[in-house]
Amino acid sequence: MSRVSDSLIWQVVKNNNSFLHKREQTARSGAVQFSAETGNLMNVNSFKYSGLANSKAVDITSDKDNRVYLKTKAPRKCNAPRKNVATTPLRKDRVRSEKVVKSRGCSSFYRADLSAAAKIKYNKALRDARVRAGIVKAARTKAGRNSRTA
To answer: Do the Cβ atoms of 114 and 41 come closer than 8 Å?
Structure first.
């Protein structure tokens, strides 16, 4: 099987794929498109963050056992989907794990442009895992304008 360029894959999948969530277009915000594929750090339908179109993609996830993982795509193994993703568990404290995220997923040789997004996603995944484990309490939700009950 031959290797296809990332931009060609993006042109094929940018408007229609099974992970796409399109929202209504409003006068204030315009059309918003989200994407739920693995490898998409910000869940935004754009070429920069796409896990489908980029041969080098970074993803940070947490599982049901409250563990956080860094997943990177191996561009040389594009024809073997099972071996395509390298998973690194982030078990240490927050500062050391952020260094691992920066060195493994966001180094100058991999995807340096995703460094800030990966750090934010790691902190959110860690917070979510700690809330589910019962270590910290969840943030309180704000009561909006329409929160009054009759």
So the answer is: yes
